[in-house]
User: Fold DUF952-domain-containing protein from Trematosphaeria pertusa.
Amino acid sequence: MSAPSALPNYLYKILPAAPPSPLPERLPLSDLDRNDGFIHLSTSEQVPGTADRFFGGCTELWLLKIKYEVLAAGTDGDGRVKTEGKAEVKWEEVGRGCFAHLYGADLGEGNVGEVLRVEKKGTWAESLRLEW
Assistant:
């Protein structure tokens, strides 16, 4: 499936626990990402629904905020653009939405722009206000 017509400025990776600080060049993959063969990402509009669905029991979440253009360029977690086995963001239909999946790269200090800690107040939809 192709990318949405209005590409987001940022994509987010949802984590149920704090990532290492400082961020390493390569963050460990979640079991889901390892099994699926790609890193699951969400737009700002998708994060609340994904958080409510998969992380509803958590009282806090950690979000990796990543500039879309950095991932679209093929930047790996070490900050280098991969030329062989290039990293790629693919937009794929999942359920009722089209989600970004990162293939062929890791997340890390070289492509994650910011780490955000969010506390749950009510639902995640009520607690999250993110940049598109």
